[in-house]
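Supplementary notes for students who missed Thursday's class. We covered one full example, reproduced here. Read the sequence, then the structure, then the short commentary at the end.
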Amino acid sequence: MNRIICFFFILFFAIPTFSQIDSLQLGDKYAEDQIYVSISYAQFGEQPKSISRSNFSYGISTGILKDFILNKKGTTSIALGVGYGFDFFNHKLKVSEINNSTLFNSSENITSNVFKSHNLEFPLEIRWRTSTAKKYDFWRIYSGIKFLYNISNVFQFTEDTRDFKYKNVSAYRKLQYGLTFSAGYSEFNAYLFYGLTPILSNASIDGENISSNILKFGLVFYIL
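Structure (token representation):
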């Protein structure tokens, strides 16, 4: 199944994109199909009380967006896209999988505890910008929602000098989504992602539900 998904992603990503070309004149109808690349500082939000703040964590993503303009000037549009994202968390929650059941604990004896995930991304953006058919540097404000489909996830930690690694734990949500916001000038733009779905389902620790979601802020680059 994952091979099929990756095949269609590569096929879509390989399709060439066209936007502002030299033959366009001011006032002509145009679109801004773009490649996006983002790098973000990441944290878990809504953590249980017994779990402290995560250490340095990050996320990177890249993909392609298809622009559908809403007015002739091209200053407002809707964009649909597909991409790939990787998240790395240096976190404090101990996650293990035994007999297809996910267990959650906190431990003082853990010396290394990381979480990695690979996701397909499907962004949907509402866009406003000051561009024209012949203006390549402009201000932009983009907001929207991004859907994530998890291809693989790994929780691994070292406890009492022993290494543990659990792949594709059953409690991890395959489908997630969150709000996105980016704003800036030319290629350089501030970027925010706020996850609206907890990353884990049916999860609790010490009688408290685990509602951890993903928060990211960093930079996103749009390349025509």
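Commentary. Confidence is low (pLDDT under 50) at residues 7-24. The chain has one domain: 36-116+140-223. If anything here is unclear, bring it to office hours.
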